[in-house]
């Protein structure tokens, strides 16, 4: 009787020890994960509510308390726009010393004032904070002003961009004389971070108040980055209209002292000229016996810059048309960061009719962009009704079947 009793006691002690050891290991793993900052992760903050991932903090932290917000709202004039920026840091704590930041004045209700003209090339904080009042004649030629703020959290190694509002946007809808604006933001030159705001309907003065927090960006690299804001108007039935853009080089901007308020005039997008679309080398061969068309996309050269970041990421989309109706489509692989791409990709199309009289082929050179729609760099059409080198190339293909004929072609507007 004594042996089973001793065995039972030792088994109970062993079970208790195993459970305790397992619980201790789980606690250690959980604490190590909570202290680890995820690299290259951003958090979207909407309407001024600070939301942090649960693996960084055990609880979600929000902005100022309801009582303090009520006091601030009661103290504000009804017709003024107040932006509470320096109440808290990114951890949700009140700093010991706070600097007072002036809110943006109401441009519509304020009387015209004369401000010193600022140099567009200078990036000093004083010049960035200044707001110029525009006359009614100047507003017709302007595309509006974008207001935003920048901040860097050294504890979390996080770069914070708050897109506040835009003022005086032009009307892109001629019927309603309004726009449906939203903003796309890209951190250049690597284009790893691409974000966009929500669409605000029927307004020329959208108040976004959306914050984007980017983790894993060292403070030493901030000076090498550039912010690119693209202001667009949503269109349900066609491609969204581009209102303009804002480019902010961060070199010379000091973020160590806290949050920095900035405003920039929206400028017209740098549209490429049709003469600088580049060239495309293609080779075609018509097999009359099998009634097939072999298309080889060989090279592209002298492609223009797709955006302010520099080089484009081109690929070619090939569309086959029969009597102006697309019957087949193919596309090449994407070539990263190059104006002179080498594709060397072959496609074979079955022709649904005898001969090439009603057949045409379209080449679209596009820039690959994960964060938005791929932009058309240039277009090339080959067919019996095509003009220039496209028509000459097609004529040679029809006259000399079973022969592979290659030619360079200038790309036209997309």
From TrEMBL:
Residues 62-82, 95-127 are annotated as: Disordered. It is found in: Cytoplasmic vesicle membrane; Endomembrane system. The keyword Transmembrane helix applies. Its main location: membrane. Keywords: Calcium, Cytoplasmic vesicle, Membrane, Metal-binding, Phosphoprotein, Repeat, Transmembrane, Transmembrane helix. It is a single-pass membrane protein. The keyword Phosphoprotein applies. GO terms for biological process: calcium ion-regulated exocytosis of neurotransmitter; negative regulation of secretion by cell; vesicle fusion. One of its GO terms (molecular function) is clathrin binding. Residues 62-72, 114-123 have a biased composition (Basic and acidic residues). It holds the Pfam family C2. The chain crosses the membrane at residues 6-27. GO terms for cellular component: axon; cytoplasmic vesicle membrane; exocytic vesicle; plasma membrane; presynapse. Residues 142-263, 276-409 form the C2 domain. Belongs to the synaptotagmin family. This is SYT4 protein. The gene is Syt4.
């Amino acid at each position: 009787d004594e042996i089973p009793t001793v065995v039972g006691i030792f088994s109970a002690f062993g079970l208790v020890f195993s459970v305790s050891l397992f619980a201790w290991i789980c606690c250690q793993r959980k604490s190590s994960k909570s202290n680890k900052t995820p690299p290259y992760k951003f958090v979207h903050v909407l309407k001024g509510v600070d939301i942090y991932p649960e693996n960084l903090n055990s609880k979600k932290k929000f902005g100022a308390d309801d009582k303090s917000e009520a006091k601030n709202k009661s103290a504000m004039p009804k017709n003024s726009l107040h932006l509470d920026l320096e109440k808290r840091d990114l951890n949700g704590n009140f700093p010991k010393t706070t600097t007072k930041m002036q809110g943006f004045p109401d441009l519509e209700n304020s009387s015209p004032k004369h401000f010193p003209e600022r140099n567009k090339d200078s990036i000093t904080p004083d010049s960035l904070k200044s707001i110029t009042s525009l006359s009614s004649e100047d507003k017709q030629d302007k595309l509006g002003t974008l207001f935003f703020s920048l901040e860097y959290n050294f504890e979390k190694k996080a770069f914070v961009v708050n897109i506040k509002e835009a003022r005086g946007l032009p009307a892109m809808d001629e019927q309603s004389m309004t726009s449906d604006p939203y903003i796309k933001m890209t951190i250049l030159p690597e284009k790893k971070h691409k974000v966009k705001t929500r669409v605000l309907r029927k307004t020329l003065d959208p108040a976004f108040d959306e914050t984007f927090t980017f983790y894993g960006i060292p403070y030493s690299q901030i000076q090498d980055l550039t912010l690119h804001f693209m202001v667009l108007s949503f269109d349900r039935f066609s491609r969204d209209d581009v209102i303009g853009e804002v480019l902010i080089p961060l070199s010379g901007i000091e973020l160590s002292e806290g949050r920095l308020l900035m405003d920039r005039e929206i400028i017209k997008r740098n549209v490429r000229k049709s003469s600088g679309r580049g060239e495309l080398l293609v080779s075609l061969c018509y097999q009359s016996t099998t009634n097939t068309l072999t298309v080889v996309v060989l090279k592209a050269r002298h492609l223009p810059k797709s955006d302010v970041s520099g080089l484009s990421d081109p690929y070619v989309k090939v569309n086959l048309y029969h009597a102006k109706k697309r019957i087949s489509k193919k596309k090449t692989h994407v070539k990263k960061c190059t104006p002179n791409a080498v594709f060397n990709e072959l496609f074979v199309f079955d022709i649904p009719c005898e001969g090439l009289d009603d057949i045409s082929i379209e080449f679209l050179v596009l820039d690959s962009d994960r964060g938005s729609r791929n932009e058309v760099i240039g277009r090339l059409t080959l067919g019996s009704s095509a003009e220039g080198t496209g028509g000459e190339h097609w004529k040679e293909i029809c006259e000399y079947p079973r022969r592979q004929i290659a030619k360079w072609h200038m790309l036209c507007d997309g």
